[in-house]
Amino acid sequence: MKGRGVNIPCASRLLAALALACGGCCGGGDDSEGVGSVEVRNQTPYFVHFLHPDHNRLYVEPGASEALHVSSSREITILIAPGQEAKGMVEDHASCCSTGGEGGNLDCASVVANWDPGAGQLSADVTPPQCAGGSGSCPYVYSGTDPVLQGESLVGALNRGAARHDVMVLSPLLPEDGSYRVRIAAELDETDYIDAAWLALVDHPAGSRIAKDSAGNLRVVRTSLSARRASDTERELGQKLDLDDGAAWEGKNPDRTLDGKIRDWIEIDFPRPPSTTRAILLVRGRNTHLLQDAYHEYLAGFGPGLKKLMRLTTSVHGYRSRLDRYLAESGFSLEVAVKDGEGWRAADPVKPVGPAAEQTIAVPLELPADGAAEVRVRLAMLPGAWIVDSARISFDEATDLSMQRIDASSALRTLADSGKSSATTLQAVSSAGESTLRVETGDSLVLQFPAPAASKPPAGLERTAVLHVVGYYEENDRSPKPCINWKRLLRASHQDNSFARHVLDRLSHQKVVDRYAEEAGVRSPQ
Amino acid sequence: VAFVPIGDWTDHAYAGRTLGSVTYDDDLDQFGPGIGAGIEFGWKAKRPLMVTLQFERTTLATGEWEDEAARHGSSVVSNASQTEILFFLSVELLGRDSWRMDLRLGIGMMDASGKESLRDPAISYEYDFLPASFAARGGVGVGYRVSPVVDLMLLVDAVWATPGVEYPEHSAPYLGIATCLGPRFWLSAPRGT
């Protein structure tokens, strides 16, 4: 890697990490989770009850504010107090996180109860605490001048030690005014570091499509088959997974386990042509916002020092592999297995793609030697972590691909470069460059790739653009405090399915929200 | 024990308020009189003084509030109670063969609690506005000797406790009159010593 990062020698980083570890103080010295206040405000014309497992506040007058003294992140219920002409109840999550102060102080959300007189409906606005760490995520990738969100890149490349080479199939992307335009945006509370970015134009047989696998290899798919049958524990899914049509499966059953891990899954039967030994499973989907929010909240609970510690240890050997393993074990990936005899054989997982947009991921499958007329595939997820739009299978033979690499001819950062093409920026993202380009929150890297002179692919072929990005991202660290809630961290590390249970808490809350939204005729966002 | 709450602390949060098109009565009470039971242990070392430790628990009526809520479309089932533990010092003012009269003054704690359940939406919650309070209580006790070891006692006390009820926008000390009727058993020693 040629990344710049923070210029601290490795030994110094370890010493700093050790100092951080010894000095960590969040969460207090006893078993308590700390104390904090959830600020609540009643902006309805009625008396309202605010109900929290740690502290109720009843009969809060219209326009009044109160503080609920709490010890942890929990659900809060807001209720129009009875005996008034209006009725209403909403629930939301009042998160808290360690501030690093003495005594295990917590910084907690603030909650405002609102009333829509037109709809006669109660609602809640929840502002998360500042120490919740914002909502940093991976770079968003847009294509074209009329930008199309293609998805998130560098997913899981958190901090310099996890930098990676990522590949994204852009579909469809046609040259406009002689060039292809791609924008890489740091939209959330993050800073992106781009080492290199280029475009590959892939010519493949007309009527086929290109899909990448989780390792970044490209696959040509001419034909794909839909499932004969798909079912989860509760129902047959019919043709829900046949097409990329938004009709999706979301595993939400919290009561199933798979190899000791909390997982929900579907089993899909595909037809299998005779004498086939390999196949490509095509899964289209995305992670949920619920998973991302739960992840931020979960990490924030360990105190503001955890981000610092992760950055300090990013150069330690094995950082990336440990992070990948953590993400996989925690349920960020979609686990794939093929039925083989009485058991299941694991295939490559679908690594996380983030919640911004769906992506199609190819999963190579080794088929069982039984020669059966069907192949059964299992997709398992942490409940609430994925939305699977489609799942199809292809038995096409591997095809050699003709690829043409194109380097950017112009590059600019919309804010840092004042929207003007910059030779320095272009140099930074070119493969020959020695520096890393930093893209701050709110900024975007706009790249123009010249279309080749032979702008059309040869006869019988069609062309797909594939973006290559090398880099990583950092979640912004807004807190000056270094401490870590070690007690909570150790407890979480020894508790099976710790993160999964946190996600399930979130999911449980989401189900309540969905139920009320459904009753009100409103669909809540995922 | 019969407990009659008095003062502003029994007022419902809506009392005298207009919310939407509804104006609530100034006298709307959250709590009303209740009954309960108690027990008192005492030690009389030397006439005329006696010290006692008293436990008492009484209900608080909530029917007025439930009825008011029902009038406005809410099905509410609620209950509330108050519990006291106090040390008393009693001074015997009058002691005759069959009758006795004490002046009593006690301090301790009073803890009120309550809960209500709604049918729509279905939810229950505890009353948070009834904190444990420092209590003082004083009154008179009148006893009639039924047998050499049993007196029939009537105690009438005024009760005051602070901080008392604590709504978000107002608070008031607990006030009430407690009337207790029951036997007092003398386990040893003549009462007059």
Would you kindly provide a written description of the structure presented here, covering whatever features stand out?
Chain A has 526 residues and is α+β, with helices and mostly antiparallel strands. Chain A is 16% helix and 38% strand. Chain A contains 7 helices and 32 strands. Chain A has helices at 10-23, 289-300, 305-312, 319-330, 423-429, 486-494, 498-519; strands spanning 36-43, 48-52, 55-60, 65-70, 74-80, 89-94, 96-98, 106-108, 110-116, 121-127, 140-143, 148-152, 164-170, 179-185, 190-205, 209-213, 218-221, 229-231, 257-258, 261-262, 264-271, 278-287, 335-340, 343-346, 359-366, 374-381, 386-394, 402-407, 410-413, 437-439, 444-450, 461-475. Chain A has a 5-stranded antiparallel sheet with strand order 12-11-14-31-29. In chain A, strands 13, 15, 28, 30 and 32 form a 5-stranded antiparallel sheet that branches. In chain A, a hairpin with a 2-residue loop joins strand 19 and strand 20. Chain A is globular. Chain B is mostly beta strands. Chain B contains 1 helix and 11 strands, in the order βββββαββββββ. Chain B has an 8-stranded antiparallel barrel with strand order 1-4-5-6-7-9-10-11. Chain B has a two-stranded antiparallel sheet with strand order 2-3. The radius of gyration of chain B is 20 Å and the shape is elongated. The two termini of chain B are 29 Å apart. At the A-B interface, strand 3 of A face helix 1 and strand 8 of B.
What's the assembly state of these chains?
A: heterodimer
Bin the helical content of chain B.
Answer: under 10%
Low-confidence stretches of chain B: none
* Main beta sheet strand tally, sense and closure of chain B: 8 strands, antiparallel, barrel
Strand arrangement, major sheet of chain A: 12-11-14-31-29
Spatial arrangement of strands, main beta sheet of chain B: 1-4-5-6-7-9-10-11
Q: Determine the structural class of chain B based on helices, strands and strand pairing.
A: mainly beta
Number of helices of chain B: 1
Please tell me what the overall shape of chain A is. globular
Number of helices of chain A: 7
Average pLDDT of chain B works out at 91
Q: Assess the beta-strand content of chain B as a share of residues.
A: over 45%
